[in-house]
């Protein structure tokens, strides 16, 4: 067990039911997350990041379904668990943080009621202990005067404070893994930085693992140890953040980084690379990126590149950049 990764995804496929058959939205994704590691999952909007996050949490809904592959958490296969077991596991071992705090919070219950209920559904504690735990969680996520705030309703909190409450909810059962899907996207820039700092501190102090899902390379640079770049449902490149930011080898990653002033970089629409990412079902033959790639050759149009190991990276490209990225990148 010792060196076994906390989370192990193998050849994951996610299908979308459509009028005519099914479309492949995630195609053969394999990823490991070690204990205590933060993995950034980055790519343009529509790449399949959130689908992968929902597959891990077991909250995939029609028309999406897992079509193949496996997901193991702490050695246990979790992609085919019955709904009830998955629901228990989801709160206990996996905490989730989503973009919009309002989807995670019940407007009709006080923050304290929600925290205490969640704590008691996962851990055998008395009402009193649950309340003490809730207070200490609010304190841990940086909510001032928790004893005054605990009996307030979500609408009485500002956007940034609400996201802190959502983070406290995700921590209720002391999970081993946090899935944070665009946790800062709905916040303005100064609040974004605060939430990033908070997540970084929590991961360090608690020794948790986290998958940070984002279209913002700046968030990855601030938070992640490793980064996986997703394009049209396939992994383009996986490597240590420092390596990928300084010497990205996939032309798509280079495109993402090209105009990047490191913080707050938005790759929602990637204007630096002409063309658009294909939607599921419209993926071109060969490398999915080839129509937009300046380095393409005949092989790229014909055959999808396999994931290859390349001095510290994994890259799916027939002709990866081997030279360091231009000096301004990562500077
Ligand atoms: N419930 C759904 N119904 C139809 N299409 C979906 C659904 N969920 C995701 N998709 C499609 O799958 C692709 C990947 O979606 P998603 O994982 O949300 O992307 P990302 O999080 O990277 O922006 C997109 O083209 C999206 O439109
Ligand atoms: Mg998403």
From TrEMBL:
The protein's predominant localisation is membrane
Topology in the lipid bilayer is annotated as: Peripheral membrane protein
- UniProt-annotated location(s): Cell inner membrane
Q: Which Gene3D superfamilies match?
A: P-loop containing nucleotide triphosphate hydrolases
Q: Does the keyword ATP-binding apply?
A: yes
Q: Which keywords has UniProt assigned to this entry?
A: ATP-binding, Cell membrane, Membrane, Nucleotide-binding, Transport
Q: Report the record's Gene Ontology biological process terms.
A: peptide transport; transmembrane transport
Q: Which domain of life is it from?
A: Bacteria
Is Amino-acid biosynthesis found in the keyword set?
A: no
Q: Mind naming one GO cellular-component term on file for this protein?
A: plasma membrane
Stretches assigned to the ABC transporter domain: 9-257
> A GO molecular function for this record?
ATP hydrolysis activity
**NCBIfam families, A to Z:** oligo_HPY
Listed PANTHER family: DIPEPTIDE TRANSPORT ATP-BINDING PROTEIN DPPD, OLIGOPEPTIDE TRANSPORT ATP-BINDING PROTEIN APPD
Q: Which family does it belong to?
A: Belongs to the ABC transporter superfamily.
What name does this protein carry? Answer: ABC transporter ATP-binding protein
Q: Which organism is it from?
A: Xanthobacter dioxanivorans
Recall the taxonomic lineage recorded for the source organism. Bacteria, Pseudomonadati, Pseudomonadota, Alphaproteobacteria, Hyphomicrobiales
